[in-house]
Design a protein that fits this description.
Length: 199
């Protein structure tokens, strides 16, 4: 899953949210530099990623990107899933609901920059100023997210093919998201509850 999903699957917990959002930039034992609940957010992110990668619907979704993007196919699926979450009326009944969620997420993260890894701190500035979380709702926003994925990768040249793949397989990818999400949301809620109960 990408940033919108990880923010949403923090279920309003400010400390879990911070850990969940920075997890990809916290390597190895660095997680132990963080307070307990933030560390649990870091772990929650990793549990969600593992669940996502091994879900049958995700495996099916990856296949449409695999020919052109090979090992990066999962990263493109993550962005596509955020688009379908952003447009999911069961989660965000209106555009304003998504806008308000995005605004609240940024507010919860604002002022925590000194706890963010440097790479994420820089990224957060653009995430907030360009409102990435809301932008996932539109195809233009998704194209921007695909482009960012390419810029951060070592081996990708462009995202034009990914944009075509999303448009050509839009219904299939939407079905994969819905099959995945009905399992992912309760999984994440249960896993977060388990982590918070641990000493």
């Amino acid at each position: 899953m990408n940033y919108l999903a990880h923010a949403y699957l923090s279920f309003g917990n400010r400390e879990i949210l911070l850990g969940n959002m920075i997890s990809d930039f916290v390597k190895g034992k660095q997680q132990f530099n963080y307070p307990s609940v933030i560390r649990k957010g870091i772990l929650l992110h990793r549990f969600i990623d593992e669940f996502t990668d091994t879900h049958e619907a995700t495996k099916r979704a990856k296949e449409v990107f695999r020919k052109d993007y090979r090992l990066y196919s999962g990263a493109f699926v993550d962005v596509a899933y955020d688009h379908f979450l952003a447009t999911d009326e069961n989660e965000f009944a209106t555009e304003n609901d998504l806008f308000e969620f995005s605004k609240t997420t940024y507010e919860k993260l604002e002022g925590r920059q000194n706890e963010m890894p440097e790479i994420f701190e820089k990224m957060f500035f653009y995430m907030r100023s360009q409102n990435w979380l809301y932008g996932y709702r539109t195809l233009a926003g998704i194209k921007q997210a695909f482009g960012g994925l390419v810029r951060r990768s070592k081996y990708l040249q462009d995202s034009f093919m990914a944009e075509e793949i999303l448009e050509d397989h839009y219904e299939l990818l939407g079905d994969c998201y819905r099959q995945f999400w009905k399992d992912a949301k309760p999984f994440a809620q249960q896993k977060m509850n388990e982590l918070l109960k641990e000493e």
